[in-house]
Amino acid sequence: MADGSSNGTSVPFRDPSVYAEYQEKWATLPDSAESWEKRAQEVSDVLAVDAGQRDIENKSPQAEVTLLKHSGLLKVLGPKKYGGGEQPWSIGYKVTRKVAEADGSIGMLLGYHLLWSTTANVVGTPEQADRLQKLILENNYFIGGAVNPRDNDLKITPKDDKIVYNGFKHFNTGGVISDLTVLEGVLEGTEDHIFAFAPTRQPGVKFSHDWNNIGLRLTESGSVKIEGVAVPWTDALGWDPEQKKPDPKVLGIPFASLLLPTIQLIFSNLYLGITLGALDYASKYTVKSTRAWPFGGDNKEKATDEFYVLAIYGNFHAHLRAAVALANSSGDQVDLIYRNYSGDLETRAKLTARERGELAEWVASTKVVTTDTGLRVTGGVFEVTGSKATSLKVGLDRFFRDIRTHTLHDPVAYKNRELGRYQLLDEVPEPTWYT
After folding, report:
1. Among 245, 264, 290, residue at a domain's last position
2. Domain extent at residue 332
3. Which residues belong to any copy of the Acyl-CoA dehydrogenase C-terminal domain (predicted)?
């Protein structure tokens, strides 16, 4: 089949009806943290059946986003009054991680959606946040984002009661199959940034359909051109629509920069999920298919009796246990910040730069550990599965390709430097687009 996009280009995708049975099966949302994690496991089990084949086919993931919609996972963080799960970020991270165990691409789409769907909660007014939560949850929308800070900013031009976005972004995760897209740019004549949501399916959002990278192949992370996309001033997040200026009570405080550590911890849970998936996949392969080495001088009948095989798997297991514990602890820190400082503007204003910086260092620590462990494990499993495991039909390579692709998002060396300054000089980082 083909997906008719907003600019008339067609791309192949699987028929979403392949997952139709789950719309009824998952008609009721989970009602506890445990049941949300169970739902994520169920989604992971469905995706695991053909994840390798879908990676090879590289079709647009419209069907898989439909599966996420059926599951309710897109709503896990949203307020209950609009049909959400009202779970904390720690559960959002865990369900993202679980989905990524089976399919890194779909885990990434889920994680990015959770960040973008809550953008207004951080950089918008309470009224804007409430209005957008209602819109997103009641329509079960999937959210994409055209916010790549390495590119030139989109140009924003004021026009009567609207602002108009124009520009180009090399990366735009999930946009092609999204209902709404988060845009971000700079208002002409100023250095002020504006976030806003826009309907994806409109002539001014032109996708290039050029994502064909070695990993995370089903994330639709290709480029997009934005031409004349107009948004009402009232939807300029954190701005006063009458004065047409940023509201310092919303955007001039440390709370408004929480999007960055929040999404960086999504990255770490994505890496962790992919790595856990790789270790599980490799373990099953070794038990079933790996042969013992017959020329070592201490020959064993089975690979599972080989000392080096056991030692490597044991070491990977230990390091992943530590990484999981660190990621969970960092998720708890995110929960604490949002629990203490979300709400009205007076409450948000109480978050200090130091507290925000301490959170960023929890997240940076997790990024370093999950990157290092993820790359070592997803590449290292081939040492204990054997040469036949490199076959494309086995599908073990996709885990390494996925994690290698995303860990290049921003250099982890800068996270190490940042943590070094924290350790030696007790300095917390200044907020940036990547910190």
Report:
1. 245
2. 254-425
3. 266-409
